């Protein structure tokens, strides 16, 4: 049995904490100085201060130096399959310019090397867990899963339905066509997957509802992009706008009618919200909608750098923090972000909106684990995986 002692100047274990919302996000956090993690077979066996009599005799010790360690981060929203698009999309010109530029690029084949490199970068950035959107490209799921495992990332794959057309085989399967081949006859991979949907304006309402129902029945997390751009709100409320022009004849069916509702109202009408649901973005949410989102128990993943890069504005972070939404963080893809280091999402919120480190560390760890439905993550308590990250100085307490 191998025992390793990891020493660090500071250690935040979050031991005993539960996912935090509202005031609990800001609660003081216990910090250990000159601390050590005793790791046995990959699990935390003990947490010690220097000189403690429980220090295991003869254990191999590694000094990690002047760092503050926290549980490994959770990147709750990525699109690893789009990693080959780094630097190839149009930024700061609005959502429609970005998506217009993106659509033809999605015809390119899956790029195994780009996915592998991205997974290695994610792991090197202190992330242990990812919620990854799959299904953007044909047969990318098994490849992405393999790269995640090789990089030591614990992945939840969200197999995304997109579009309004539905074939007979679609009707029979909970899995979208692009993931189906990879997942069939692979129960091991299937256990890490859940059906998901792209967005309210891009996916048929019956498909959205079916995916949500399947997730509720199987106890898996259902995720979708919600209230990301002003054009989304415009399309859903009026049926008009630049997004209509791009999707007309390409995604939207001829007889498509706008529901005439704002995104949150429409998501409620389709019964998509609730505990076990992870909505992504929420940039366009208004105060009363935020209250309803919180009451529904829906988790929300913020991707502030992606929102900035696309020119969508800032998510209403203070309102979300104050009104009890279960918040976590994600980078989104390399098609809308410069890197996949989720700690930099926290740094952006620290620097731009003065969000306190306690809240950000909880969003990065224990809340992200809860949002992805991953038990045994987000803490460095005995029995938990010894998966940790070094916090950037601006996030230390
Ligand atoms: Zn996304």
TrEMBL record:
The keyword Transport does not apply. Pfam families: Amidohydro_1. Residues 70-391 form the Amidohydrolase-related domain. Gene3D superfamilies: Metal-dependent hydrolases. The keyword Secreted does not apply. It comes from the Bacteria. Keywords: Hydrolase. GO terms for molecular function: hydrolase activity, acting on carbon-nitrogen (but not peptide) bonds. SUPFAM superfamilies: Composite domain of metallo-dependent hydrolases, Metallo-dependent hydrolases. This is Amidohydrolase family protein.
């Amino acid at each position: 049995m191998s025992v390793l002692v990891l020493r660090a100047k500071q250690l935040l274990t979050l031991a005993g904490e539960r996912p935090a919302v509202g005031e609990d996000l800001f609660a003081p956090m216990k910090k250990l100085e000159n601390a050590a993690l005793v790791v046995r077979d990959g699990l935390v066996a003990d947490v010690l201060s220097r000189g403690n009599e429980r220090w295991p005799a003869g254990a191999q010790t590694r000094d990690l130096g002047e760092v503050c360690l926290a549980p490994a981060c959770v990147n709750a929203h990525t699109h690893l399959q789009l990693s080959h698009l780094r630097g190839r999309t149009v930024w700061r010109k609005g959502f429609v310019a970005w998506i217009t530029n993106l659509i033809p690029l999605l015809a390119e084949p899956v790029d195994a090397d780009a996915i592998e490199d991205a997974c290695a970068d994610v792991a090197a950035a202190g992330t242990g867990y990812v919620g990854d959107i799959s299904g953007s490209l044909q047969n990318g799921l098994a490849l992405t899963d393999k790269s995640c495992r090789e990089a030591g990332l614990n992945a939840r794959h969200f197999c995304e339905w997109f579009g309004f057309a539905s074939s007979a085989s679609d009707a029979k399967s909970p899995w979208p066509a692009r993931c189906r081949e990879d997942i069939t006859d692979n129960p091991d991979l299937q256990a890490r997957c859940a059906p998901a949907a792209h967005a309210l304006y891009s996916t048929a309402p019956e498909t959205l509802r079916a995916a949500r129902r399947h997730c509720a029945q199987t106890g898996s997390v259902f995720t979708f992009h919600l209230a990301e751009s002003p054009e989304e709100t415009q399309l859903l409320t009026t049926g008009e706008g630049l997004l209509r022009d791009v999707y007309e004849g390409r995604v939207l069916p001829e007889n498509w009618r706008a529901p005439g509702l704002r995104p949150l109202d429409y998501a409620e009408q389709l019964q998509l919200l609730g505990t076990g649901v992870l909505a992504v973005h929420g940039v366009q949410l208004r105060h009363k909608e935020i209250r309803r989102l919180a009451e529904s128990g829906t988790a929300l993943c913020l991707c502030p750098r992606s929102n900035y890069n696309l020119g969508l504005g800032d998510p209403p972070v203070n309102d979300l923090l104050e009104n009890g939404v279960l918040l976590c963080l994600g980078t989104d893809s390399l098609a809308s972000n410069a890197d996949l280091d989720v700690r930099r999402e926290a740094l952006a919120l620290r620097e731009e909106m003065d969000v306190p480190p306690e809240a950000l560390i909880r969003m990065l760890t224990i809340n992200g684990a809860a949002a992805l439905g991953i038990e045994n993550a987000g803490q460095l308590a005995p029995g938990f995986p010894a998966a940790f990250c070094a916090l950037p100085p601006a996030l230390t307490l």
